[in-house]
């Protein structure tokens, strides 16, 4: 137990540099929406289905194995579980009690809607926030792996049992897990039903400006966008910032009020023909909109049609950074990285600068790289700052307060680990 606690402390120390900023950012995300309409997965048809997927996932054949939801993938295997039970028998009494209680609690939670405690569990905010009741199932999985090894070890100590039989048993157990895993990972990848033709990527690649693209039915996969160096308005992520989530209603021309991984949600573009807003998209530096149906906003100009998709140019497109003025003159981007953006403001047509990036409290701005200036959130959730008369450029850095604490904690952890390793090595050599 002490080693486990020590491992947890070291893990926290090494991950603090990224974990603490994530925790600081979480309140501004859509995760809290899970409390408004709790929807906990997986949904079991019965306790038997739960047990079947643990011990006999292959009983329905390969097709059935492929059809098991990710949240329901709990397979331990029948033979490994039987050997693990033998290994469990040889644990100390205290270890048995601890493991039984832990497994029992995790099982009750993982059963979700089939659990005898379902009414209590589904009223718990913490379970609604983690959303998937089987997240802790890795603990029983690791327990079975180690107990299987322990069981085989104790079988070898039994002189009356043929050693070849034990080896055969171990091979069969490993073979069962290997077969289950192999057939699972060979599951055919679903064919994309909505996918932009290659000609669209070729068209977009000819424009060397820095802009965003919006496909109304999410026809550009995020992986393909990354490969083609495209920036999207839409996307898929377990968390989004609430301010962008809400403004996406206006950007996409659709409305929803549920927690969703996809923006816009799959249902909106599957069953509706939403009409996006050119002005709002323009302020978000969206130069092109792609649609399989006609867009009615007069500020969208049809450029090219490839297969069923038409590329529309947004006449209200604005550059990534611009001054707040009637004609919104461009402010050139000098540096653009995930954690640092530098904008040239030397032309000074206005005393206010707008950066077409979603406002987030973790970002800081420095006039001429040294003078701190508060970043304001515009009504459409972009970043705006006031400029002084001598401002030649503005630096934007991602510097959440918790990041500094994370640097200290992770740094000290590394120093302690290195020091301990050196001292131990010196003692070993001595």
TrEMBL record:
The chain crosses the membrane at residues 73-91, 98-117, 137-156, 165-185, 403-423. Keywords: Membrane, Transmembrane, Transmembrane helix. It comes from the Bacteria. InterPro entries: Uncharacterised_YfhO (IPR018580). This is Membrane protein 6-pyruvoyl-tetrahydropterin synthase-related domain-containing protein. The lineage of its organism: Bacteria, Candidatus Daviesiibacteriota.
């Amino acid at each position: 137990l002490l080693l486990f606690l020590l491992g947890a402390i070291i893990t926290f120390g090494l991950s603090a540099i990224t974990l603490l900023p994530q925790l600081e950012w979480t309140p501004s995300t859509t995760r809290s929406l899970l409390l408004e309409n709790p929807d906990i997965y997986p949904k079991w048809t019965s306790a038997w289905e739960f047990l079947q997927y643990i011990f006999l996932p292959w009983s329905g054949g390969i097709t059935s194995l492929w059809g098991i939801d990710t949240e329901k993938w709990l397979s331990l295997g029948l033979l490994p579980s039987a050997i693990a039970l033998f290994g469990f028998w040889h644990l100390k009494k205290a270890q048995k009690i601890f493991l039984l209680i832990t497994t029992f609690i995790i099982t009750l939670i993982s059963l979700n809607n089939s659990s005898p405690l379902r009414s209590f569990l589904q009223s718990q905010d913490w379970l609604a926030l983690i959303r998937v009741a089987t997240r802790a199932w890795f603990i029983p999985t690791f327990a079975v792996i180690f107990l299987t090894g322990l069981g085989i070890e104790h079988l070898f100590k039994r002189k009356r049992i043929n050693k070849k039989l034990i080896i055969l048993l171990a091979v069969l157990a490993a073979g069962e897990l290997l077969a289950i895993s192999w057939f699972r990972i060979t599951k055919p990848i679903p064919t994309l039903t909505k996918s932009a033709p290659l000609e669209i990527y070729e068209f977009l690649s000819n424009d060397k400006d820095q802009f965003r693209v919006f496909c109304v039915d999410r026809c550009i996969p995020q992986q393909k966008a990354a490969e083609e160096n495209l920036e999207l308005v839409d996307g898929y992520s377990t968390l989004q910032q609430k301010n962008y989530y809400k403004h996406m209603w206006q950007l996409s021309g659709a409305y929803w009020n549920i927690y969703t991984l996809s923006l816009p949600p799959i249902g909106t573009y599957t069953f509706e023909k939403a009409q996006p807003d050119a002005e709002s998209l323009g302020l978000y530096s969206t130069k092109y909109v792609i649609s399989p149906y006609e867009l009615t906003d007069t500020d969208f100009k049809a450029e090219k049609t490839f297969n069923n998709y038409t590329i529309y140019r947004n006449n209200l497109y604005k550059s990534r950074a611009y001054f707040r003025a009637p004609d919104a003159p461009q402010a050139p981007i000098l540096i653009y990285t995930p954690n640092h953006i530098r904008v040239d403001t030397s032309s000074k047509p206005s005393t206010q600068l707008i950066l077409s990036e979603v406002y987030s409290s973790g970002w800081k701005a420095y006039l001429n790289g040294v003078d701190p200036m508060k970043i304001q959130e515009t009504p459409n959730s972009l970043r705006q700052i006031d400029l002084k008369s001598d401002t030649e450029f503005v630096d934007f850095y991602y510097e959440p307060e918790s990041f500094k604490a994370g640097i200290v904690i992770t740094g000290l952890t590394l120093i302690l680990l290195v020091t301990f390793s050196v001292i131990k090595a010196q003692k070993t050599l001595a």
